[in-house]
Amino acid sequence: SELIRGFLLSGMPCPSSCPPGLLALMAPGLALMATFSLPSQAGDRRALPVEKPPGVKGRTLILLDVNTKSPVRIISENFLSLQLDPSIIHDGWLDFLSSRRLVTLARGLAPAFLRFAGKRTDFLQFHNVKNPAKSRGGPGPDYYLKNYEDDIVRSDIALDKQKGCKIAQHPDIMLELQREKAAQMHLVLLKEQFSNTYSNLTLTARSLDKLYNFADCSGLHLIFALNALRRNPNNSWNSSNALSLLKYSASKKYNISWELGNEPNNYRTLMGRSVNGSQLGKDYTQLRSLLQLIRTYSRAHLYGPNIGRPRKNVIAFLEGFMKVAGGTVDAVTWQHYYIDGRVAKVTDFLKTRLLDTLSDQIRKIQKVVNTYTPGKKIWLEGVGTTSAGGMNNLSDSYAAGFLWLNTLGLLASQGIDVVVRHSFLDHGHNHLVDQNFNPLPDYWLSLLYKRLIGPKVLAIHVAGLQRKPRPGRVIRDKLRIYAHCTSYHNHNYVRGSITLYIINLHRSRKKIKLAGTLRDKIVHQYLLQPYGKDGLHSKSVQLNGQPLAMVDDGTLPELKPRPLRAGRTLVIPPLTMSFYVVKNVNALACRYR
Questions:
Q1: Family per UniProt (predicted)?
Q2: What is the pLDDT of residues 260-273, one digit of tens each?
Q3: pTM of the predicted protein model
Q4: Structural domain includes residue 95
């Protein structure tokens, strides 16, 4: 028995000198003794990479249990949130946000925040006029679209009022003209992005109405980022234009939260004028005072500073900001993009080293925040798989989902309160919905997450048979497992159920045996795979073998699980993402909200 215990605790395969039958005796012991708690740093809270030792065939690779007594983290109900880039003013898509189909898709991801911000935030000017003077020019997409916009706002014909908001069924011909216009503008926007020189944007009162109408209809809470690059001669923030926007929004009783600027650490490259962290902190303090003067926004939430990747100079910027305004903001925000979209390859999305880059950034941000304002909530805003607008057939394909789902799991397990996905709809290829208003793979992944995952994060315990690594060889985990209480909003499951979500980056299937409190429970499988001949490049997905598509403009499909019999081993196909609801666990951590 001592020999068995030694091998169990070491995790080593049984040597050739083992007595006959020892291997069989070890099987139940593995479940009870070789299970271990993962470290408190959630970046390391992953299943070990495990392989079958030579000569051991048909054995369960991984034994999995979950601590059901108490959650290790509790994140926001709005954890998975969305972003819209101000470029939708430039390319005309803002005028089509009232589309019934878009609203239906956005409603599927509620409750969530809708952040209106991006590279063009600091070139946005508000004009309190219903319609600026328009140069119509000759016949063409823009000419007809301008006339259409005027007609649809003057009349409620084609508008359906639901819950006080306006939803339109836009004619196909107008959508086709808009796509033509957007394609022309796409080249202009890309040129601005690559040259890092941006033209000014005008947001009219009517445009703001349309933006708020979309958020309100969809059940999303709008966060508006104000232009921080309007500066006085002494480099302090010029708030005159922001005050005009605030007063108009207050007159309409719009429920909005606020930010100031976007990636302020990059202002020198944008305008040749830098703003340091302490100055931005003073600007935020000024904005807070401004909000308190307006009754509607006296208690409005304020978020920032939305810095870029936390390199050394950016960390110094954040420290300067936190010294001055750490107590002014309701959450500290930063943003992250994994890959340069201009050079991305499909194999990049399968690299575990890339998936792990976020952990180090989280630790750097948490260290600064906890130094100045311990316990302050931290958000990751503007996250995307690739920068530079993404790459067609990559960042909008099934392959990009590995990064997206791992980002959600990693951030939740490390206590990041909210993650804002860039973008719901825009001119690039990082979006959830394309310009035909069809949901892309990351949309369906996000929808499953919203339907199945609750805000309580649970610790997992894993054990398995692991081959001894060769000297100098780094074994990186290609099987990622996360666990939460099942969403309370999902009435198909009683409280106390648990949802696992699993990423298999191996090119072979993996087997998981549920142990401990999860043993012999009925499991519902939601297996998401690419659909069609394009494989990982596919822009369509299937759930448990059935392709996913909208039923009609106002109806999302039913997400049907595949029931697995109690005690059945979970078989995870290669290069897939999946969710498993373990029913009727009666987990103490999950019984109450």
A1: Belongs to the glycosyl hydrolase 79 family.
A2: 999 999 888 766 77
A3: 0.85
A4: yes
